[in-house]
Amino acid sequence: MTVLDSSIRYLNGVGPVKASRLERLGVRTLGDLLFFFPRRYEDRRRIVSLKDLQADTVAASIVTVVSTDSRLSVKKRISLTRAIVSDGHGLASALWFNRKGLDRLLTSGTRLALYGKVAKEGGMAQFVAPEFEILGEDEVPVQIGGIVAVYSLTAGLSDRWLRKIIHRLLDQVLPELEDHMPESLLRDLDLEPLGPAIREMHCPVSPESWKRARRRLAFDELFMLQVGLAIRRRSVGELRGAPRLPLGGPLRRKIEHSLPFELTEDQSRVLAEIGRDMSSDVTMNRLLQGDVGSGKTAVATLAMMQAVDGGTQAALMVPTSILAQQHAIRLRSFLEPHGVKVGLLTGGLSAKERKALLKEIAEGSIDLVIGTHAVIQEDVVFRRLGLIVIDEQHRFGVLQRGALGGKGEMPHVLVMTATPIPRTLALSVYGDLSVSVIRTMPEGRIPVKTRWIGDHKVDDLYGFLDSEMDRGRRIFWVCPLIEESEHLNARPLEERFDFLVRRFGSERVSMLHGRMSMEERRSVMEEFASGESPLLASTTVIEVGVDVPEATVMVIEGAERFGLSQLHQLRGRVGRSDEQSWCFLLGKPGTQDGNRRLEAICSSSDGFEVAEADMAIRGPGEICGTRQHGLTDFKVADLIRDEDLLTLARRIAIDMVGRDPNLDSIPAVKEMVFRMYREKLELAGTA
Ligand code: ADP
Ligand code: MG
After folding, report:
1. Which residues cross the membrane (predicted)?
2. What is the pLDDT of residues 198-257, one digit of tens each?
3. Do 132 and 12 fall into the same domain?
4. Which of 189, 222, 440, 583 is geometrically suited to a Cys-Cys bond with 649, CB 3.0 to 4.6 A?
5. How confident is the model at residue 373 (pLDDT cuts 50, 70, 90)?
6. Percent of the chain residues topping a pLDDT of 70
7. Concatenated DSSP letters for 552-605?
8. Which of ligand 1's atoms lies nearest the C-alpha of 576?
9. Structural domains of the chain, count
């Protein structure tokens, strides 16, 4: 417990009401407040003489009040307070709204600093609702005249008030504040001491000194996480107790031979990497990264066969129930002839069916369980789970071992993702994951041609769809959901479906959406896959994983509403054979970002390039789902801008933890790391 842990209520000037408002911003303690950094800054350093004021600018001036008057605007029912001010070189006015009593405060002769927007009013410059600070005779302004912090505030709190409170806090605690970083390190890395850096963030002296302060604090954040990861890596490295599942078992060999294709070189390489991990009792923690359509499922299937060969069970967790069904149908027909028992565990089971299935899983008569993430995580008990495969598609989250607790002793874990994870993120968050990458697509694939077409070309499109269907091809037509919830409103889809039925005939068109029962969905998917009903109007329920090689056209309506990775995933439903496939985007040019997305998806069919464009538009934490896990929601550091700093922090963290695993030489850092990351990184031990 330090002074920084005490409640903000103990700070002079913070009453219970203000305290609860600050709490809404996540500020509870003095420490929180100290690190509640500004959202932006206003440069109010230049004091403008009144005679030089320009309309439509923002300016700061130091003036003396000449006269004040107050009146009520009858029509608008607001009170107006107007002051005429002078600085000895010129006159101006200042106008405030609904500030009752202000005229009594700003009496003639009062010295003021003003800051605000300037307008022209009757030939005279006028400050409109300016911030002001009353100054004593020789007093210099605090809120005006420097670079001033602007915070992200909630109703009932003003920047003015917060600046005052934070100034008070800085004066009170900084002199006592100990720097948790060793002095030698700061010297070596040319980093500012902590106290001055914090002060500079709230009250910058110049952009240059602010940059130095920011660098110090960003380094701290990155360093703490890297130390946490280094500690975890040491302990995870020693996590033994997983089943040894040797390579070269009979099932896996048989299944590999019965595949309708040869594995690509990349597939074989990643399988070897995975297989090697699984044959050791050190728990595998591996990420399999490969673009949409690169053939991750085959790899996962063979890895699961290695688990079954070794006398254990395997689980495959997928993002949607349609996908779970599709995998179950496919894997059953493929694996059951070889005596592998496959169970499908989804939310659609009756209580009785579910109970029976859970029993079989617990007894071990089911070898392979397929289900959605939620369903498998619930209350499933395995006899002996050897491998868990998590197919996260592009919704990549941080792998959390804790969430898998109770699923067998210590299963090996393989996470599959189509999202290329940028180097900075991989280093910062997935530092302790091994990564396998499939870079090349199965042979003979032709990149999908993507076109953004205008309304006047839609008739041509219908003709093209006719000819594709005549040649035995299948077509996806995806409509966006206008409402937030899939359950509320599928109207755009229904309208489109009616239209397509009129245009192409009811026997050729079917519809799929999330409100249909599992049974309905399955029969629709089967009719589509078999070609009985070759045009499928759908919501994004088909977005991930659905695999129908004969599908060669993807039409995406309202494409401007979709995110880039979503568009790439949708497009990935076609181009799965050696035929030329097409993706047509129907969409109105919308926002600038929307246009950039459509242009990006048209210009590249490569998942890595698409992800790069996405990163540039949205930022990396958003994309890889690390933000909600709180591992990368830094206050200061920025994973793109601070890549160099991150590399530095990582190198030093690894070095330090290597030399001094218990961190005895840096107890303050240790304490902080445990405080911040003990739960998130599941660190063992105490500071
Ligand atoms: P994803 O990586 O997106 O999960 P899938 O595993 O669904 O990709 O594979 C896409 C398609 O490629 C499937 O139809 C699959 O049968 C096929 N495929 C996978 N590996 C190969 C290969 N080595 N040669 C030819 N086709 C393959
Ligand atoms: Mg897949």
Report:
1. none
2. 999 999 988 899 999 999 999 999 999 889 888 877 776 556 778 999 999 999 999 999
3. no
4. 222
5. confident
6. 89
7. EEEEEETGGGS-HHHHHHHHTTS--SSS--EEEEE----SHHHHHHHHHHHH--
8. 11
9. 4
Number of neighbours of residue 338 by Cβ within 10 angstroms? 13
Range of the domain at 8: 3-40+169-203
> pTM of the prediction?
0.64
Length of the chain: 687
**Ligand 2: distance of its center to the CA of 569 in Å?**
10
> Domain ends where: 604, 634, 659?
604
**Whether residues 578 and 460 fall in one domain:** yes
Is the pLDDT at 187 greater than 50, yes or no? yes
Pocket lining: 650 vs ligand 1, CB cutoff 6 Å:
no
Ligand 1: does its nearest atom lie under 6 Å from the Cβ of 271? Answer: no
Same structural domain for residues 367 and 494? Answer: no
Q: Within this chain, do residues 348 and 491 fall inside the same structural domain, yes or no?
A: no
Condensed to tens digits (0 to 9), the pLDDT of residues 69-98 reads 988 877 778 889 999 999 999 999 999 998
Dist CA 182 CA 194 (whole Å): 11
255 & 388 share domain: yes
Helix (H, G, I), strand (E, B) or coil at 195: helix
Cα-to-centroid distance, 253 and ligand 2 (Å): 22
Residues 26 and 52 reside in one and the same domain = no
Query: Considering every ligand atom, which ligand is closest to the CA of 324?
Result: 2
Closest ligand by atom to 547 CA = 1
Poorest-pLDDT segment among 39-53, 345-359, 538-552: 538-552
DSSP codes of every residue in 417-458: ESSPPPHHHHHHHSTTSEEEEE-SPPTT--PPEEEEE-GGGH
Band of pLDDT at residue 440, cut at 50, 70 and 90: confident
Give the environment of ion ligand 2: residues with CB less than 5 A.
Answer: 545
The reply to whether ligand 1 has any atom less than 6 angstroms from the CB of 319 is no
Q: Is 292 in the pocket of ligand 1 (CB under 6 A)?
A: yes
